[in-house]
From TrEMBL:
A GO MF label: metal ion binding
Name this protein carries in UniProt: Gamma-butyrobetaine hydroxylase-like N-terminal domain-containing protein
Lineage: Bacteria, Pseudomonadati, Pseudomonadota, Alphaproteobacteria, Maricaulales
Transmembrane region(s): none
Naturally occurring in which organism (per UniProt): Marinicauda salina
Keyword field contains Iron: yes
Annotated Gamma-butyrobetaine hydroxylase-like N-terminal domain residues: 14-94
């Protein structure tokens, strides 16, 4: 794992509804809880193939209620809607942080295409 950015701080900011994650290379990201939920790495959301990805709706106000370490490589998040099957690797959290704006825009576009809203 040498050379790979390693998280040095995770802060779940309930008021901002975001996870702040800082890495040892100085990168810092604020990832909205909504994005964490709708992009959960769980099979329930992602399916077992790219064409099986589920469009998750109504998560604008979702909150993270628990974070449990999974080995040294990830964290399992529990949300207030009961979802708790996503295991977020440090690499995946980095990817979400780096691409949060684009992913949120894509999510909004998919919702609009389906005639649905974020709330």
């Amino acid at each position: 794992m040498a050379g790979r950015p390693w998280p040095v701080r995770l802060a779940f900011r309930d008021g901002a509804r975001a996870l702040t994650i800082e890495f040892d290379d100085g990168a810092r990201f604020d990832i909205p809880f909504e994005l964490l939920r709708v992009e959960s790495p769980s099979a329930e959301v992602q399916g077992h193939a790219p064409d099986q990805k589920r469009l998750v709706t109504g998560k604008r106000d979702v909150r993270v209620t628990e974070a449990e370490p999974v080995g040294r490589y990830a964290v399992r998040l529990t949300f207030d809607d009961g979802h708790a099957s996503g295991i977020y690797s440090w690499d995946y959290l980095r990817e979400l942080g780096e691409n949060a704006d684009g992913l949120m825009a894509d999510y909004a576009a998919r919702l609009a295409e389906a005639g649905m809203a974020r709330s």
